[in-house]
Amino acid sequence: MRVGLVCAHPGPSRPDGSTVGTHQHLARVAAELTSRGHDVRVYERRDDPDLPATEERGGYRVERVPVGPARPTPTAKLVPYVAEFGRWLRDQWSGGWIPDVVHGHFWIGGLAAANAVRETSIPVVQTFHSLGTEQQRSLGAAYLGPQERIPLERALTRAVDIAVAQCSDEVDELTRMGLQRASVAVVPAGVDTEHFHPDGEAAPREQRARILSVCELSPGHGQEDLIQAMRLVGDAELVIAGGPAPGTLNGHAEARRLRDLAQRAGVGDQVRLVGAVPHEQMPTWYRSADVVACTPRYAAAGRVPLEAMACGVPVVGYARGGVADTVVDEVTGRLVKPGDVRGLGITLRRLLADDAGRFAYGHAAVDRVRCSYTWERTAGALERLYERVVRRRKPVEAA
């Protein structure tokens, strides 16, 4: 099967082979589908004129689309280039290589993909990765997305054959936006279990217990709740990994705000911000923790809890989105009502004092990831989904 993966953002796969954040999802899906015998091409926006226009990587082909400014550009600034991106794809697909199915990623990528195939019989699958309506409701004034995003996402749901949700909450949100339940399939992200596993080195730590939070340094990721909860935890350290490079934290507004909050809460000596950590080093940080805490206001995918669980570390998190889907309460960790800071602090304190419980949760977490959340399972589910939409669109031949 010929599969076109479309992402209007740059960077699902960089020249050095590294991938970051949600873009890692796209690069891994492409590699897994290729290993299953499919002909895969990834389309990303070219934001650096020094990068090659095309590149072979891991058996699939990366096509960098020369649309929009040749520099990093905020998502809101890419909306005027959607039609041009779609035309470029349509021209490419009018020649020898025509995809059997197109899979859009993020709302901008989905709009470009739908625009490219609107006069063809090529089916469109869409993964939003996040939804403007839910982010706006969860983040309130902290939501900074472009105003046109929400109506354009609603329009996109009417143009695709099927939408891929990454958690149960996202299914509910998509149906509220007008999609039929039969047109939504849940396909969670996978985990690289060869990279994330319990055996190996751990990052240096103090003798006291360690709680690890892995997230961006921006409002809405719940670090303030964790800092407030530390007053109830006792003698433990909270390590927050993520954000800018370590050497630039002093100049980062959110880092300063969180440090000030920790001082006002009386836990300044218990909270440590370490800045960005390279992805290849993350397993050592997970292994160094007694508990990983996941408290975002919005989380479509459960990447962080899954990586922690794959490393044998129990997770305490808010019962929402991808966290609620991946963490089994009292089996692989503990779930807390979203926003319940007191409950969060008490749960963390009790789990840190329960060595046997953490050991049991950690073993169950590893089993859950290896049985249900590998990239092979994710690719297999997408493969079956593609086959379904292609059969639905393919004309019935006369007997």
UniProtKB/TrEMBL annotation:
The lineage of its organism: Bacteria, Bacillati, Actinomycetota, Actinomycetes, Micromonosporales. Residues 204-356 form the Glycosyl transferase family domain. Signal peptide: none annotated. Residues 1-21 are annotated as: Disordered. Residues 21-194 form the Glycosyltransferase subfamily 4-like N-terminal domain. Keywords: Glycosyltransferase, Transferase. Gene3D superfamilies: Glycogen Phosphorylase B. Pfam families: Glyco_transf_4, Glycos_transf_1. The keyword Transcription regulation does not apply. It comes from Micromonospora echinofusca. This is Glycosyltransferase. The keyword Transit peptide does not apply.
